[in-house]
Amino acid sequence: MMVAVVIVGIVPYFAMDPDTPISSAFAKHGMQWAMYVVTSGAVLALCSTLMGSLLPQPRILMTMARDGLLPSFFSDVNKHTQVPVKGTIVAGICAAALAFFMDVSQLAGMVSVGTLLAFTIVAVSILILRYVPPEEVPLSSSRRESMGLNQEYDEEKGRDPLGDDICDTSQIKDLIATEAMKDPLLEKQHKGKMDEMKRRKIAAFSIGSVCLGVLVLTASASATWLPFLPLCIGCIVGGVLLIPGLVVLCCIDQDDGRHSFGHSGGFMCPFVPFLPVVCILINTYLLINLG
């Protein structure tokens, strides 16, 4: 803000170059050295931003590959540098190809579309995790290794120094079964299972109805070239799909996530159905218009 105030004080806003306002303001007053300094700083800032955007991408690909969402090709790590070299090469080639074949304005539009798409996916994921979370959560390799070490430690702890078991296998199984019956996290799997499955089906259908309604409503509202009657019909159909789904999500209970994540699920915000749906609606509208 202060930089804008200073530049407007140097050169009137209507006389500025919209592409390079700061450097051109110094150039109009004969300060060529300042123009070169500002331009060099802008180029270096762009390079650092590009590096900061490219370096995390191979790590994201590596994590997704370890979770099974991508081929194992991206999960390989170099033994000497401990860097995902294959993912880095693939991400660099894709970025170079986009920069070579596409215009800067098109790339800027793609960046905006990617950001909006990421926010939309996050909003949909919030609804899914709140109402229909997965039954099983995949563990990372480090978490599996730590759990394996803890299991080995427990097995060694159950033995005496001479190597004999303190209790036999049947006693260990009885103890585990007794603890499992007392564990409230495992109790949920047996109590009210049919009601929980019914709630999950209704929630999944409602989330699908909300997403489809948002897509139909925003597409109809953006299609200004359509006649008035089809446009109104599309908006009405989108509203019919969107509003009942949102009402159902507000009425049914949220999943506490204890059977999936091992804890109570945190604070159940009463505005969870509204805020993600509004975010999905706005982002989808912008995506359709930018696309």
UniProtKB/TrEMBL annotation:
Molecular function, one GO term: amino acid transmembrane transporter activity
Record's keyword terms, sorted: Membrane, Transmembrane, Transmembrane helix
Alphabetized InterPro entries for the sequence: AA/rel_permease1, CAT_C
Alphabetized Pfam families for the sequence: AA_permease_2, AA_permease_C
Membrane topology, record value: Multi-pass membrane protein
A GO cellular component annotation in the UniProt record: membrane
Ranges that cross the membrane: 34-56, 83-101, 107-132, 202-222, 228-252, 264-288
Sequence ranges assigned to domain Cationic amino acid transporter C-terminal in this UniProt record: 267-291
Gene3D superfamilies: Amino acid/polyamine transporter I
Localization per record: Membrane
Similarity comment: Belongs to the amino acid-polyamine-organocation (APC) superfamily. Cationic amino acid transporter (CAT) (TC 2.A.3.3) family.
PANTHER family, per database record: AMINO ACID PERMEASE FAMILY PROTEIN, EXPRESSED (PTHR43243:SF75), INNER MEMBRANE TRANSPORTER YGJI-RELATED (PTHR43243)
Protein name, UniProt field: Cationic amino acid transporter C-terminal domain-containing protein
Annotated source species: Aegilops tauschii subsp. strangulata (Goatgrass)
